[in-house]
């Protein structure tokens, strides 16, 4: 056997040696037990019902009260147990007139489908180039992993969109609340953003007065 033949055989074997063998049909989350990095332990299959595979949280009209005019309803392994271990999640985004999903990023990629309304959605890459587009009902856009992105309702009515993410717990870091709604000292925030300390303190007061859970519920 020559070196080329040996290399070819090794090339075939390496992927097999790292293949993941799935030994169960599903792993519905048992949320009574602690969650680990890979998700929740599996619920006893004998106790699994059809209801575990259905999520009804996207039904009905959603209330929008926060500063961003945004309501985010999440379907992930915390709220939809059957997603546990599958590496996917979804969210419903309701945007009031003038509402925004502020600049943020995820650990995962995201795809958005506009159901109703008109929005501008955009991505900002690591060269600081912005790619943004007006989206109408039925349009789809992708946001690559880790890149900053946003959505803005530019229509005269509410906008509704559904997003899907390739992670059970994608996380989301909203830039503005991260800088001005947390425990970062105003002096440091001013230095790293080139915003005046007075403006930083004004933003701090805005975020101190509002319920951050109302606009960060989709970041879990």
UniProtKB/TrEMBL annotation:
Compartments where found: Secreted, Extracellular space, Apoplast
Organism domain of life: Eukaryota
InterPro entries from the UniProt entry: Cupin_1, Germin, RmlC-like_jellyroll, RmlC_Cupin_sf
Signal sequence, start to end: 1-19
This protein's UniProt keywords: Apoplast, Disulfide bond, Manganese, Metal-binding, Secreted, Signal
GO function term, MF aspect, one: manganese ion binding
Binding sites annotated in the UniProt record for Mn(2+): 104, 106, 110, 149
Record flagged with keyword Chloroplast: no
GO cellular component, as recorded: apoplast; extracellular matrix
Binding positions for oxalate per the UniProt entry: 106, 110
Cross-referenced Pfam families: Cupin_1
Coiled coil: none
Cupin type-1 domain ranges (all copies): 65-201
Bridged cysteine pairs (disulfide): 27-42
UniProt family annotation: Belongs to the germin family.
Name of this protein: Germin-like protein
Phylogenetic classification of the source organism: Eukaryota, Viridiplantae, Streptophyta, Embryophyta, Tracheophyta
